[in-house]
Amino acid sequence: MSYTKEQEAVVLKVLSYKSHQFYEILEVKKTSSESEVKKSYRKLAIKCHPDKNPHPRSSEAFKVLNKAWEILSDPQKKAIFDQTGTDPTSRFSAASAGGAGGAGSGFGSGASHFSSGRTGFASANGHPFEDDLFNMFFGGGGGGGSAFGGGPAFTFGGNGFTFQSFGGQDPFMRQRRTTRRSGARGGARTQQQHADGQPRQPESLFESFKSLLPLLLVLIVPILSALFSDDTNPEYSFVQTREFNVERTTPRYNIPFYVNEKFVKKNSQKTKRQMRNYDSKVENIFIHDKRAKCSREQIRKDQMIEDAQGWFSTDMEKLRQAESMPMPNCDILRGLNLL
């Protein structure tokens, strides 16, 4: 099947970059937002998809695009890449990332992790136990950034096993079985100390309550307002009914809403300014509700698009359904020039 010069150009351009030039591959910058990265990826993915582009190397280019998207769409992988300039999913870059981890932490970013409740070890990049051996002996040299940095011992749980490191260029592990009682005391001492080695005083009940007070106020105030409200029945409706049949409009966007005869009599003595303030509150409630619902619609649409795009192929039917998904609340906001 023949292909156009434009189809060949986009494939060869993607393949012309080095494997770790993720920003150049997706034609974005380091400062580009998440939505800009996603938009550029989708545009290029459609152009390079083997079902749409008959060039013999389109499949290769499509895999390169997916690899760049995998890194730049994941905040953790993107942060490692921005810091090291290497592919964070590569076992060699994962080892160097472990060496660049923050000093003082038991395990650097990208280093192997001890998997509690499971047998053996599990590495952060998904490689089996041999990666952890590689990281242990070559991942960081001396200093606190390596997977097992020089100095302190780390005790996991209350089973009495201790992994001890002694610094230098060739760290190793020593496993020691201690009694249950001494292991429990060691764990308690570790939890009672700050990072600088000073004992930490337990938090008082008052301090705990003080820290939770803002959250309690946010939860309690609306409940109390509802309980002590004079009238729990709604005073208006955005849909005309037999009860709410007197139309009003909001002052800024002329959004229609309806009140009942009881409302008219109750507020007949109020000034125009007071009624305008009331209409503005109704308008703000309407817009806030539509924005919340529009946000849920957008999240749903993005999820459908993500589901349609696989690693090596895109379900074009699902993609069309996602792109044409109805978004009535967003349409209302667009009609008001709020979106």
Automatic annotation (TrEMBL):
Pfam families: DnaJ (PF00226), DUF1977 (PF09320). GO terms for molecular function: Hsp70 protein binding. Its main location: endoplasmic reticulum. SMART domains: DnaJ. The keyword Nucleus does not apply. Residues 174-183 have a biased composition (Basic residues). Residues 167-203 are annotated as: Disordered. GO terms for biological process: cellular response to misfolded protein. InterPro entries: DnaJ_domain, DnaJ_domain_CS, DnaJ_subfamily_B/C, DUF1977_DnaJ-like, J_dom_sf. Keywords: Endoplasmic reticulum, Membrane, Transmembrane, Transmembrane helix. Gene3D superfamilies: DnaJ domain. SUPFAM superfamilies: Chaperone J-domain. GO terms for cellular component: endoplasmic reticulum membrane. It is a single-pass membrane protein. It is found in: Endoplasmic reticulum membrane. Residues 21-85 form the J domain. This is J domain-containing protein. It comes from Lodderomyces elongisporus (strain ATCC 11503 / CBS 2605 / JCM 1781 / NBRC 1676 / NRRL YB-4239).
